[in-house]
Amino acid sequence: MADEGDILQNLDNPAAGANGADNTPTAAIITQYVKDLSVENPNSPDVFQWTDQPKIDVQFNIGNDAKSDEIHEVTLKININATSEKGTAYLIELAYCGLVGIRNVPEDQAHAFLFAEAPRILFPFARRVIGDAVRDAGFPPLLIDPIDFNGLYMQQLQQRRAQEGGDAPVPTEGNA
After folding, report:
1. pLDDT tens-place string over residues 1-57
2. Where along the chain do its domains lie?
3. Which of 63, 64, 65, 82 is nearest to 130 (CA)?
4. Does the domain at residues 24-175 carry the CATH identifier 3.10.420.10?
């Protein structure tokens, strides 16, 4: 017969097994934050007299750093370089992170969550930070187009498997 402590534990966690073990698959963003932000306006104040539209180059990278068996830091790095014929208008480098908790999830699904779903969740917040940084540098806010992280993840997975001929692991970092 179970004692009162066991009953209360199982009521608090209905997914817990008879032995009190939690076997429910769980993946979620615990918190998110700006880890690093650099804004450069190297040609100010002259840049504000330029009349040509700058060309905007946006690069991003997704990184994962396991902090423990169940906690990962997913980093969405975004680099923006705005240039015109007269020079660099501005440079923005952002490392926007999320702490992700993952428990009882198969490795392939955890990898997909870390490199596709977590960046999809983090992106709108990183996009806002970029827009504000560009505006605060004295330029019209930059609204980065939405990114299909799941599509990019699947594309990289297929490319890796084709290159290595079969069931190769997915890369640990992604570029686009």
Report:
1. 444 444 334 434 444 455 666 788 999 999 999 999 999 999 999 999 999 999 999
2. 24-175
3. 82
4. yes
